[in-house]
Amino acid sequence: MATTSSRTQRTDPLTLEVVELIGTVVARYHEEYDAAAGKHALTGAQARVLGLLSLEPLPMRRIAQKLKCEPSNITGIIDRLEARGLVERRPDPADRRVKLAAPTEEGLTVARSLRESLNFAREPLAELSREERLSLRGLLRRMVGEDAGLLADPATPAGYD
Amino acid sequence: MATTSSRTQRTDPLTLEVVELIGTVVARYHEEYDAAAGKHALTGAQARVLGLLSLEPLPMRRIAQKLKCEPSNITGIIDRLEARGLVERRPDPADRRVKLAAPTEEGLTVARSLRESLNFAREPLAELSREERLSLRGLLRRMVGEDAGLLADPATPAGYD
DNA sequence: CTACATATTTCATGATGTCAAGTAACCGGG
DNA sequence: CCCGGTTACTTGACATCATGAAATATGTAG
């Protein structure tokens, strides 16, 4: 709570503008993401899953958790990725119920290319000096909470590739 | 990873982390948005359209432009909103081909309630002092480009039709 | 009036999402 | 060993969202 005396200052114009800006960033993020995915004839969901798997093969159930959707949904997405030869299902030696989804060679190549063509990073951030990026990092870290500064996604611990 | 000294520092770790943080913000934004929409038994797309219309009635075509999708898609979304009594189609007196989608009284109420329950603004931003929010606003403005700081949706740059 | 352009809808199709039910496998207690 | 409960994945039915092509109605230029 904040600066003003009002009890519910939900319409503080500065906060509103920041939210608005974040909305713009979110929209742009998606545009770029979908465009990058489209270049490889992938949908957003497929690209997201492939990106996840390129870090580490995962059981279907874990994928569903990361995407916050039902496991039955993942079946279809992996089906389509598998049909295109980008992903394969492997048995988990430790538990025969589990199927591990792992990228194929081609899947890894596509995932890498996807990451590179996703230039959301460079374009808009190039505008900012190193100091400004440091400042932005600090502010975003505080926004998303301390723990999230370490791993945005439980999938991506400190050492992404 | 050869981050150091390379001239094309597309994998500059600082930039990478900022991008990661933005990804987290994007994910959280969506969670909150969908949760807020879900409270009113609306999907994300329906909530977005209703929010748009609550500012101003719009022709179907314009809605499609703002959402960056095909107009035929909007027909279905408006159909569902209309079936729930949240939106109505009105003729455009100036052009009988055009149908204006406008929120009903109840639609306006829901839109307002939606905006309020979307506390993405307050929760994470409450962590930041006014000065920090000013700083964040400045950085985001530069990221998204100057003009985007003025109006919410740059989808309407100049005269379109 | 004719020809073309625009706004919306309809239809077919595919991807994504939910939920409920089914199958296979793990696991604990008898 | 068998039984009952849980877990992992798949399947099916269904709703939403998205695209693209074709149809309809209207506007507009020549």
Features:
homodimer; 161 residues; mainly alpha; Arc Repressor Mutant, subunit A; three-stranded antiparallel beta sheet; 8 helices; disordered N terminus; DNA-binding
Describe the structure.
- The structure is a homodimer of 161-residue chains.
- With 161 residues, chain A is mainly α.
- Chain A has a domain of 92 residues: Arc Repressor Mutant, subunit A.
- Chain A is 60% helix and 11% strand.
- The first copy, chain A, has eight helices and three strands, in the order ααβααββαααα.
- The longest helix of chain A has 27 residues.
- Chain A is elongated, with a radius of gyration of 19 Å.
- The termini of chain A are far apart.
- At the A-B interface, helix 1, helix 6 and helix 7 of A face helix 1, helix 6 and helix 7 of B.
How do the helices and strands line up, and which of them pair or pack?
The structure is a homodimer of 161-residue chains.
Chain A: H1 13-39, H2 44-55, E1 58-59, H3 60-67, H4 71-83, E2 87-92, E3 95-103, H5 105-117, H6 122-125, H7 130-144, H8 146-150
Antiparallel strand pairs in A: 1-3, 2-3
Helix pairs in contact in A: 2-4, 2-5, 3-4
The structure holds a DNA duplex (30 and 30 nucleotides).
